[in-house]
Inverse folding.
């Protein structure tokens, strides 16, 4: 997650050319992150995000 950018699922076929359910996987991952109830999130880019629950919730229901 990056504080001011909405996250997106990567859409590409698997090694056999079949459509992967990347959006479903992405939302499931966000829900698992939400269940952790973390206070700080250290993204790969940008600033540390304090109390990221609202961002995780917003992206998992969009």
């Amino acid at each position: 997650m990056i504080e001011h950018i909405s996250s997106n699922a990567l859409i590409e076929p698997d090694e056999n050319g079949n459509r992967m359910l990347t959006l479903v996987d992405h939302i499931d991952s966000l829900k698992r992150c939400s269940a952790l109830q973390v206070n700080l999130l250290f993204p790969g880019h940008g600033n540390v995000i304090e109390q990221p629950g609202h961002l995780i919730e917003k992206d998992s229901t969009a």
